[in-house]
Amino acid sequence: AGIQQQNPTGAAQLGGPGPDAGANASGAADPAGGGGSAAAGGGGEEELTPEEESQQCRECLEAAVRAGADRQRVQEALSRLKSRNLRIVFKVLCHAGPTGLRVADIVKFAREHRFVNWPGTSDRTGSVHCAIRTSKDMIVHVGTHQYALALFPGVVHVPKSEQRRGARAAGGGGGGVVGLVGAGPVGTGEFRGPGGEGLEA
């Protein structure tokens, strides 16, 4: 029940069933970690009805437009989403606006607003991280482990690696022994680098 054929044209049809109705409903493999059916998704999840999915898509479109996104770009992005988990994350981030949300908050919002029926005891942060990684720059890191849709005006990707380097530099000390291959004889205070050269302790 509720199985829909994919829209062959890829056109946005937010007024009724189509690409909004049960993304990946055929049960095909989902590269972002969620199956297209309750059986494939695991954990006793229930699929949304086509009507629920269509209503949620209309609501997320309106929320994104209110937050400054271009209606046509949001519709086009929604029509292209095949991964169930990526679709869930996209809908949540439409509501979050340009400030975005942390992964744990994306999971919480999705559960509370019934974008998915993930069991409360299951940790779905890994599924969300995987969906973000496969989003092909549709979802970007905006700082402090928060993610937002790139289609919002003013959203700029903030590389995580720069944050980590900055955190290490601010933390001082701590990283001095990292990367050292071995230490000299016990009690000498002499450390050896990868090429065997002596390094000061």
Average pLDDT: 71
Main sheet: strand order? 1-3-2
Rg for CA atoms: 22 Å
Following the backbone from N to C, one meets helices and strands in this order, namely: HHHHEHHEEHEEE
| Spatial gap, N to C terminus | 68 Å
Summarize the main sheet.
3 strands, antiparallel
Extended strand count: 6
Biased composition (Acidic residues): 44-54
Biased composition (Gly residues): 32-43
Biased composition (Polar residues): 1-10
Biased composition (Low complexity): 20-31
Task: Walk me through the structure.
There is one protein chain. 37% of the residues lie in helices and 8% in strands. A 3-stranded antiparallel sheet has the order 1-3-2. Strands 4-5-6 form a 3-stranded antiparallel sheet, with no helix packed on it. α2 (50-66) runs antiparallel to α3, α2 packs parallel to α4 (84-96) and α4 (84-96) crosses α5 (103-112). The protein is mainly alpha-helical and 201 residues long. It has a domain at 38-149. The radius of gyration is 22 Å and the shape is globular. Residues 1-10 have a biased composition (Polar residues). Residues 1-56 are annotated as: Disordered. Residues 44-54 have a biased composition (Acidic residues). Residues 32-43 have a biased composition (Gly residues).
